[in-house]
Amino acid sequence: MMTSAEVMAWLDRLLHDTQAVRDVPSQVSQALQASGCRFTHDASGNERLTSTGIGVWGDYLEWRFADRHAFSIWQQISSTQDKTRQICAAGGPQKCDAQMNGLVVIANEQTAGRGRLGRDWQSPVGLGVTLSLVRCLDARTHAGAVDRLTFAVSVALSQVMEKLGLPATIKWPNDVMIKGRKIAGILVERTQTGHGDAAIIGMGINVHHTAEQLPPRATSLAIHGIQCDRLAVIALVLDAVDRAMTCDETTLLDQWRSRCAMLDEQVTFRHSGREISGRVIDLDPCEGLIIRKADGHLMHLPSATTSVVLPD
Amino acid sequence: MMDLKTLRELVKLMVSNDLTELDLQDKDEKVALKRGPAGGEQAVHLVAPTAMPAAAAPAAATPAPTAAPAKAEANSDEGLVAIPSPMVGTYYSSPNPDAAVFVSVGDHVGDDTVVCIIEAMKVFNEIKAETSGTIAKVLVENGDAVEFGQPLFMIKPK
After folding, report:
1. Cβ contact A51–B123 (<8 Å)
2. Any idea which fold A57-259 has?
3. Which of A77, A110, A171, B14 is disulfide-compatible with B19, CB 3.0–4.6 A?
4. pLDDT in tens, B75-101
5. Orientation of helix A57-64 relative to helix A4-16, angle to 10°
6. Is the CB of residue B1 less than 8 Å away from at least one CB of chain A?
7. Could you read off the pLDDT of A184-225 as tens digits, one per residue?
8. Sequence spans of domains, chain A
9. Contact: A53, B97; criterion CB under 8 Å
């Protein structure tokens, strides 16, 4: 009899090998198929994983991230941000530790997903990755936490795109773009746990969407010819985000600068109800974007109260 | 997914509970069963599975529902509608171990009222009433293993 860990190790291989895998034990493929995974076989008996079932996500993610994260996976909820806030306040169906640090809440489908400044985020069943990650805030990490986390995660998500072969740019503050179209978004919110303050980092990534399934100015991995299972995307995202969280800020800032499409550009922003134009100079991870206005003065634009006015 | 045996069991369940309609919805298939008055014709109406790209169906395990309730109980269920479990899994009556239950006897529910959570393969499913009325009976307890099609609640329809 195979242990669950052995089955998960095979699944890990199947997720990462773009080539078909030889000699997958029948016990493994049967166990994975029972959790909703789909395979194709070629003539010589090699197996290729075409999609994972959400029924295997919990086992795989717990196996893969046992030391770093706890998982709460939902079939259909209003949004992972709302569900995470509830779990932080009162606990989830499973017992979690009161601190909630590292908790990841994943939805197969969101009925009321949202982005920054109350915008909608479309997430029909089975097409994208929508998850929220809890990060505890202590006194040291408190100031500017929303800006700093949004900045770190925007770098992490653009690194995921590059790992998948797509050069990405960051549209400050919270969008990751491929060829000028949005492929991923970030929403960082604050909440309370039984233990103290925490940030909820929400992420949405378009994976299998066709152009018709997306709003204008959006794109997906599939549109760029990348066929990647959502579970593999989740694993890449968590690896990249965990790395960015422990990366020193100087390195992270360099990585941000090399990907920020706005740097040195003249951009119009809406900040606290007013339109402000200026040349984008740099980013202060805690204070926000730094722009030079026409009168030569420097100004900080915090992400929470600023949006980019798109040129039409 | 829905084999004849399961359908037959569902029909049996409807007869023993004197139900005239039964709507079951899983994430990838929908079954609507209607039954005429006793002795009349039984109409079985199967709705085609909805398209489910990428995400796959749960395990094909659909054991027969548990034994139908005793006759005496069936009589007291007259005029009540069951909310059946859409899957095999673990039943949770509240959002977390310390919280109040989602619903109890006497509560009014609407189509979108979440009545419980069922966990299957480490995935949580918020179960909605999908009918409106008053909770007349709660048939399962927190932490119970539930079967596909097993009645969880009896509702007195509006």
Report:
1. no
2. BirA Bifunctional Protein; domain 2 (3.30.930)
3. B14
4. 577 889 999 999 999 999 998 888 899
5. 90
6. no
7. 999 999 888 877 889 999 999 999 999 998 888 899 999 999
8. 4-51, 57-259, 266-308
9. no
